[in-house]
Amino acid sequence: MALKNVIGIDHAVVMVRDLDRAAESWKRLGFTVSPRGTHSAHMGSGNYTIMLDPDYIELLGVLVETEHNAPARAFLARRGEGIERIAFTAVDSAAGAEEIRARGFEPVGPIDFERPVTMPDGSLSSAKFRVFQWPVAEAPGGVRIFACQHKTRETVWIPELMKHANGAKRLRQALIVSPEPAKDAAHLARMIDRETRAEPDGAVAVPSGSDRADFVFLTRDQLGRRYPGVSLAGVPERGGAGLVIASDLAAAEKAFGSAGVRSGSAVCVAPAAANGTLLAFVAA
Predict the structure, then answer these.
(1) In this protein, which residues make up the domain named VOC (predicted)?
(2) pLDDT, tens digit, for every residue of 188-243?
(3) Which part of the chain is CATH 3.10.180.10?
(4) Amino acid 248: pLDDT
(5) Of 1, 42, 115, 173, whose Cβ has the fewest other Cβ atoms within 10 Å?
(6) Measured between alpha carbons, how far is 278 from 204 in angstroms, rounded to an integer?
(7) pLDDT at position 123 over 80
């Protein structure tokens, strides 16, 4: 039985070394990027968000080394920049944590935190969250997962931040490369109580829930065959590799300029131009 308090992909976390430089890179690709957010001293991190509907992308960087961000720092040292974790939307984080505990996964949290937000009118508000994680060691395909309950959605999904020159609308797929896609997909399916689905090219999908984006596990070679002509430099043999984004393709091609690569029915940005993350824009 599927989890009742975890309802699909909420956002993808792209770990970056230089937060401000990353934000400028994504702006050049036609994304509207939020003002920089700073997390608590305990967390020691900062972020920029790229708001879609009903999900988003988070650019995350370490500002001060703390015990809390040790796994993120280890990821950067081991893998370099790229998708480090994926968040689910939690209806109720406390209840969600109990649901995964009942399935044999000891939750980390729930933990409450917040960050200041400058609203479009210049006023200062706060974005407040309650999150819980699956055990850090449970990382299917090398990607950690957690769940995020938004207590102040109005300070995160700000209409002015949801309009993008590249036409980006929403996430369709989170692409995870693995030498053993079926094994890693089955691992995730157990963690979120979902079924796997075989794809025609041998990849394995795991629906995340509701109408949200799917996870797709595939080998690096399968990824290359899906997006011919796109350099995969920077994509690991195992780990988060890319995001498929529903969009207006004409707007995407115009916004990407020379960074864009037409690959079949998609317009792509190579990982080297997007902090280790393949971006594949498809027709909405």
Answers:
(1) 8-150
(2) 999 999 999 999 999 999 999 999 999 999 999 999 999 999 999 989 999 999 99
(3) 6-161, 170-283
(4) 97
(5) 1
(6) 18
(7) yes
